[in-house]
Amino acid sequence: MRELALVFLKLGTIAFGGPAAHIAMMEDEVVRRRAWLTREEFLDYLGATNLIPGPNSTELAIHVGYARAGWLGLIVAGAAFILPAAFIVGAIAWGYVRFGSLPAVAGLLYGIKPVVIAIVLQALIGLAKTALKSAWLIVLAVACIVAAAVGVNELGILAGAVVIALSLRTLAFSKPADGRIGEGLLAPLLLQAGGVGTAAAIPVSLVPLLGVFLKIGSVLFGSGYVLLAFLRSDLVERLHWLTERQLLDAVAVGQMTPGPVFTTATFIGYVLHGASGAAVATIGIFLPAFVFVAISGKLIPAMRRSPTARAVLDAVNVASLALMAVVTAQLARAAVVDLTTLGLAVLAAILLLHWKVNSAWLVLGGAVVGLAARA
Questions:
Q1: How many other CB atoms are found less than 10 A from the CB of residue 229?
Q2: Are the C-beta atoms of 133 and 175 separated by less than 8 Å?
Q3: pTM of the model
Q4: 9, 95, 322, 343: which is deepest, by most CB within 10 A?
């Protein structure tokens, strides 16, 4: 249990780059380094996170905890992954409320982003070897990549993969085989809050605050940009608790800090009701993920035993990797912007693929190079 907690505390502290990067780092820690799961098991849990609402990378951490150490492991892994990011975001929220601005982070992210691309690429290569087990799965992967590249909604791609798998299974055109996603990295030089102070338009009590974030955590599928839409609808338009600028600042903090982007809720809770509001909002948005994983986690072994369910899970796994590949390509365009970042990305890829260097050291190295380059 101690090792489980330490692994996910580390990941929650250094996992920059959104869900795709988080998933890649988890795969490195729990599959490559510790062999807690096989690649097939890891892929199954990754596919399962796409079938339920909530933050995918956090739910994957919770799945790993349950597989490793049962119910207590489920809680320990999820909490350990969330808490470092929540504390970091809470500290930034304190400074935001007190001083009215966000810190400059351009240099930090300049060096981290290309390293993150290499980490995700390493995970994609390893997971694809396990997932692409038949010709029809390779064709499905290509189709999903094309669909994502032209802008088809990620939920539509996943649903389409399920329909295709069920159709092929029904028509017996293929044998069932055994055995998102990410966020853009924002690098604002300085986001001025305009002297918002505590910023709430009206007094906000803890019970309604908890209710809003429980609802969002229970129904939200998709990326952090979908989270932005939900938050804007409830907090800006319906309840008038935040201004548009405050909401954008909150989402920027969630994206530029390590760990799950859903810690945006921590920032908002602090702005609206101080430390107790930050705690309530964080619990509200993440609690449904623990419940959904606890319910769905037991179904995965049963799905593997059913040929039809196995075919569906294989298809969802392939579609998830396709989405991850497209997100990686999009991130790469934003991350590799000059010779320095290109060199960082290539060096990190060589160190990962050939020398098997721990990704945590590469992230820290990238941060140091980025800060030095922009000093």
A1: 12
A2: no
A3: 0.75
A4: 322
